[in-house]
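Letters spell out the chain; backbone shape is given numerically. Take this protein:
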Amino acid sequence: MVVKIILLLAFVAVTVGVGIFARKRTADVNQFVLGGRNIGPWMSAFAYGTSYFSAVIFVGYAGQFGWKYGISATLIGIGNALIGGTMAWLILARRTRLMTQHLGSATMPDFFEKRFGSKNLKIAASAILFIFMIPYTASLYNGLSRIFGMAFNIDYSVCIVAMAVLTAIYVIAGGYFATAINDLIQGIVMLAGIVLIIVTVLNGQGGFAEALSGLSGIPDASGNTGAFASILGPDPWGLMGVVILTSLGTWGLPQMVHKFYAIRDEKAVVKGTVVTTVFALIIAGGCYFLGGFGRLFDSPALYNEAGKIMYDGIVPSIVGTLPDILIGIAVILVLAASMSTLSSLVLTSSSSLTLDFIKGNIVKKMTEKKQVLTIRILLAVFILISVVLALIQYTSSVTFIAQLMGISWGALAGSFLGPFLFGLYWKRTTKAAVWVSFITGVGITVSNMLIGYISSPINAGVLAMLVSIVIVPLVSLLTKRPDPEENEKIFSCYKKTAAVQEKD
């Protein structure tokens, strides 16, 4: 217990110290929200990766999908790295940086207003963003509490409040710059932690070959053995749905693409792509790989009174078999992953609400100082709301982390993915198409919550994203073409000539 407490206190001290150190670089909105658009490749890549992978992945997804698909769940992590990491950076990073800087937009809703010339689009996008960030936040608290409860036997509510207060301190103090520095530190902790945990867990099972052999002897629902140790697992189609949701979904999530707004230059984009890919392969691949061996740790404690498996307890049960120092590292790993994602969510939500909804609508004139103050206040408010809802959610019927994530990612990516992607590349994209994508993304998610015509929120989220990608070009071709002259001004950012030294 002493070792675990020392590790935890050291982590807290570094995190708070970074927030205080970064406070001097939050004088205006550009610095507070975007770090002055001067974030280098390593910090950008780690900020992207740590925002991507949180307790939701380590505890929720790795446990649930590792149990369902066995070792083939590792393919989800590989898909995350290649589609959600490499392809996202190659396709979105450069164009996002150039166009958002050209338009002077600091948030995704603001991008929609300036790209498509509609203030109402900005307000609608801001409302969708604020509402559907909440289930995501609740899932973070849920995952963290499982690990803390196992390691320290601490009550759920205490875990929630402690994580919220710590995150609030460094984000409110240092803004995006503090978040980026902490993401780099937290990312290093995550990398070291996941490697140590996997090696130790497999050694405890007699090594990789012995563990895989044990997994192959476990029968699936049909009574056949070997499926959980196979490459594609017992349900390849279900596996593919998870890969699509967790990989392609990042392309339309505001807190993810926000990282591209702040990149320093195009060289940073190239390096950031490589770093992100390697980071994602180790973290996501490692988490799902670990979760794939979950059935080897089957015990009566993993089942509720109705005899149903409690997926969110699988990874904590695996970690609980480790030596104390590794349990302490696992706690820091999950805390680091969760805090980095939480800080990204609350910063995105509060800045969007301030800049896209309050400024110019409720308060007509806001100075830079007042905007930063309002963002800081809303950061605290949003964290408080998320804490209250997480406590309420704890006693509700929706307790599995993966289901909460499906709802959040489905609505956000289902609304924003198509409009954002085509808005960066295609001049023919229309305002009407963006509205239709917003309506279908939210409509599919909410209607499925109420009616349940698709059994899994994850599959509903996949449907919402695919519909967005198809419906935006379709509606754009059927509606009035945007003003060509205005479009040329917007897309001129990709044609600017840059003077460089001859050696470059």
